[in-house]
Design goal:
The protein has an eight-stranded antiparallel β-barrel with strand order 1-5-4-3-2-6-7-8, surrounded by four helices. The protein is α+β, with helices and mostly antiparallel strands. β3 and β4 form a beta hairpin.
Length: 177
């Protein structure tokens, strides 16, 4: 799958009000704990890839994210599978992977038509708005990206506000966070 995603800083109380006005449906609230891994054979920071295990209330998901596919959003190929967190971590360590960092956040997930809206409160970083549409491998991401930026206008978010840096990169850039 290709995840077409746009992220921006936001005041989540204002975003919630707008979501209520447009009748977005609240799907769930999640406490997410992400552990990112570094490969022994290449630098994911340089190749713009990510490998993580996300823990969601005792359920673990291994995710690989490929390099970003454009210069204005976080569009990328993504592969996920449910795993046993302890065993998968041990396997990765046995293969030479090391833990690169952790991100903890509370995420509120909403649905507005075919757009998934995530309100993230990230430990050490603050509040963010993420919107995404999952596209098929054969779909052109450009029109989807334009749709997301059009949707974001009602929140006062423009293309220039888009943040392509991951939460992990932000935390590593600011160790005081």
């Amino acid at each position: 799958m290709i995840e077409v995603e746009v992220k921006a800083k936001a005041d989540l109380s204002k975003v919630r009000s707008i979501l209520e006005n447009i009748r977005a449906v609240k799907i769930r609230v999640e406490d997410q704990s992400d552990t990112y891994f570094a490969a022994p054979y290449r630098d994911f920071a340089k190749t713009d890839e990510a490998l993580r295990i996300r823990n969601l209330d005792g359920r673990a998901v291994l995710t690989y994210k490929g390099p970003k596919l454009d210069s204005v959003s976080k569009t990328r190929k993504e592969f996920e599978t449910v795993v046993d967190e302890k065993n998968t971590t041990e396997i990765l360590h046995a293969l030479g992977f090391s833990e690169a960092g952790a991100v903890r956040k509370r995420r509120e997930v909403f649905r507005a038509g075919d757009i998934t809206v995530c309100l993230d409160s990230v430990e050490g970083l603050g509040e963010f708005l993420e919107v995404e549409i999952v596209a098929g491998d054969t779909q052109e991401p450009g029109p989807i990206r334009l749709k997301l930026f059009e949707f974001l206008k009602q929140f006062g978010v423009s293309e220039e506000d888009s943040i392509r840096t991951s939460y992990l990169e932000m935390l590593l850039e600011n160790p005081e966070a």
